[in-house]
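Fill in residues.
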């Protein structure tokens, strides 16, 4: 299967080399990518309707892709490096567990978890704004490590043992209940996939709308040249704070859903290596290009799982695959196209 995926990727890149994406007009239609992702996800879900591991991996890919949409706003649009994504992902997850002890509808809990993650990120943005480049990256790295250590020593949050997370209830339906359609048994992960898909598609459309708007144009200008942007009266700090907070709001929402999907969260679910995977997805796919997030997430999440049969050697092959892609595609698999100011 791995060889098939790599072969298809190679063939696709060869086709892309002879037929640039700019000529594939249908891919530039705003709803083309969301429709393709929705149809593909539904087809895979129907085929693997009673295979929990495959469905769980699909949920993970969709939620990590949602996190990467938040990182795209931060790094791809305005240029803020955030190596604490796993920490804000975890804040969303732990917030949903705490809020579930109160009589609050599940959908409201998901939104509130995103807001809590956004509020905590407000504590981090100001030291980030005081620094630049790798110094700002170091601050976010330190924040991610501190978050994990805080969880491990805080017994009220389960300590290193973690917490069991509740299921999601929507219109009286418990997502953890077993399903059956006639004589066909369906995994309880199927409703979660529909929820993860809804979260991803909604976030994708919002992010796409931001990119096409004057808001996204302003973020691009700030990232490209802060001095020139400030010369024209653009408030650099305001736009950086807005992009950073909104990106972490999205990451917190994904973390809340992730906690319910897995049924259990612990500090080891939100480590620095998880942040690296999230950052690697958008670098591998092409920084700032939303269309590349799902293919990159599939490579970064599915390939290591499929290589488990070769144990430790899988990391070697996995690293070689990533190095090869970055060597021959230094701007990612699908670099972000140059903005057309006439559109």
């Amino acid at each position: 299967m791995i060889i098939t995926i790599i072969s298809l990727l190679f063939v696709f890149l060869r086709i892309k080399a002879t037929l640039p994406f700019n000529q594939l007009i249908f891919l530039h239609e705003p709803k083309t990518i969301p429709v393709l992702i929705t149809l593909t996800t539904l087809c895979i879900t129907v085929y693997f309707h009673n295979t929990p591991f495959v469905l769980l991996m699909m949920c993970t890919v969709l939620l990590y892709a949602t996190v990467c949409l938040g990182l795209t706003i931060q790094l791809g649009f305005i240029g803020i490096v955030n190596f604490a994504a796993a920490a804000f992902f975890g804040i969303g997850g732990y917030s949903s567990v705490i809020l579930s002890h109160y009589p609050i509808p599940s959908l409201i809990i998901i939104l509130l978890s995103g807001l809590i993650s956004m509020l905590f990120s407000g504590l981090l943005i100001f030291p980030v704004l005081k620094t630049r480049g790798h110094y700002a990256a170091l601050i976010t790295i330190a924040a991610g490590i501190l978050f994990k250590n805080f969880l491990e020593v805080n017994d009220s949050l389960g300590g290193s043992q973690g917490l069991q997370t509740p299921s999601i209830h929507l219109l009286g339906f418990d997502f953890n209940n077993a399903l059956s359609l006639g004589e066909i048994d369906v995994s309880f992960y199927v409703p979660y996939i529909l929820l993860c898909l809804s979260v991803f598609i909604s976030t994708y459309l919002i992010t796409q709308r931001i990119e096409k708007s004057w808001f996204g144009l302003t973020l691009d200008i700030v990232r490209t040249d802060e001095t020139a942007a400030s010369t024209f009266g653009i408030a650099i700090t305001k736009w950086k704070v807005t992009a950073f907070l909104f990106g972490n709001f999205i990451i917190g929402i994904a973390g809340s859903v992730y906690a319910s999907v897995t049924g259990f969260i612990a500090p080891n679910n939100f480590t620095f290596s998880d942040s690296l995977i999230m950052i690697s997805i958008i670098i591998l796919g092409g920084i700032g290009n939303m269309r590349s997030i799902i293919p990159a997430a599939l490579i970064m999440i599915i390939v290591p799982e499929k290589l488990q049969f070769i144990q430790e050697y899988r990391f070697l092959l996995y690293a070689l695959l990533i190095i090869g892609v970055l060597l021959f595609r230094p701007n990612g698999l699908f670099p972000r196209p140059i903005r057309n100011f006439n559109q």
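The chain is about 65% helix and 5% strand.
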